[in-house]
Design brief:
alpha+beta; Deoxyribonuclease I, Chain A; 4-stranded mixed beta sheet; 9 helices; 11 strands; 13% strand; flat; catalytic activity
């Protein structure tokens, strides 16, 4: 079922907030049917949405009337009370980022799950809404261009390539490629580690610090570690962007010409384009992985022997 999604970024001044709320009403009039409204509203609904008593109750009332008039349902945020911090000591914590939906959208996506991610590069915590979990396929070996600039790369390749001896040249080539791939994977894990794992660990630690400072003030060592994790995350994100640029197969752009999201979209397109969902063998459609693998093996075995 198709549905609408409107992403907002609320203004700061009260007069602009009033116009902002009216604009949301106008957008809803142009978006009939299932609708999701999400983003940074720069408004709060309830007293408990802020960790201090500095509240603008008039704007809170206007925001609540909008939600009631449009019959919006707020998607429950699991495990967190606040999504923004002013990064001061002690911090001001506010629940500014929300996801609303209409009843018909909720009926179609009743199993959705909303949670906060770590505020690694912003004072806002990103929101992750999972509507339909997908199976993550096993990752294939990828040769990374930046490996060429690291110490030990050529020695690792030479040692792995020369470790395989086989009289059959075709089998020897296959075994050498497999041995080199395994050696490079192990060498990369030891030299730079798994970037995604490091980023995931950093996000988890920052998220725990974000959660902790909702209940108490972070100690100086905790505050120092949180800042260092954010700095380290920026470097890891830059390296991840370099890897994504390579896998996107866009060679006409130079470093820093585009952001990671652009290259990830290109990677997603390539995966969709290259993925084999089914094979037709003698008029029969095969969709399971084992059946397609056997059909491909049989075809090339008959063709090449």
């Amino acid at each position: 079922m198709p549905w609408w999604m409107s992403v907002v970024y609320g203004p700061q001044e009260d007069e602009e907030k009033i116009a902002f709320l009216q604009e949301i009403r106008d957008i809803r009039a142009d978006c009939p049917g299932p609708w999701m409204l999400c983003g940074d509203f720069n408004l709060i609904l309830r007293d408990e949405d802020k960790n201090n008593g500095n509240l603008n109750r008039r704007m809170m009332g206007r925001f609540r009337r909008l939600v009631n008039d449009l019959a919006l349902k707020e998607v429950y945020l699991n495990g967190r009370r606040f999504t923004w911090s002013n990064e001061q000591t002690p911090p001001t914590l506010v629940h500014l980022d929300r996801v609303f939906c209409t009843v018909d959208w909720e009926d179609a996506h009743g199993d959705c799950h909303l949670r906060c991610l770590a505020s690694v590069v912003s004072d806002h915590c990103p929101l992750l809404l999972d509507c339909a979990p997908t199976h993550v396929a096993h990752r294939r070996f990828h040769f990374e261009d930046f490996w060429l600039r690291l110490d030990g790369f050529h020695d690792t390749v030479a040692a792995a390539w020369g470790s395989v001896l086989d009289p059959d040249p075709f089998r020897r080539l296959m075994l050498r490629l497999q041995s080199t791939a395994r050696a490079l994977t192990s060498w990369s894990a030891k030299s730079k580690g798994c970037i995604r794992d490091k980023m995931a660990i950093s996000r988890e630690l920052i998220s725990r610090f974000d959660k902790t400072q909702e209940d108490r003030t972070l100690s100086p060592p905790e505050g120092w570690l949180r800042k260092q994790l954010k700095i380290s995350y920026l470097g890891l994100a830059s390296l991840e962007r370099t890897i994504a640029r390579q896998r996107a197969r866009i060679t006409t752009l130079k470093d820093a010409d585009a952001n990671t999201a652009f290259f990830h979209r290109q990677c997603s397109f390539r995966r969709q384009k290259n993925h084999i969902f089914s094979l037709v063998v003698e008029g029969q459609v095969i969709t399971d992985q084992e059946g397609m693998a056997q059909a491909a093996f049989t075809y090339f075995d008959d063709l090449l022997g």
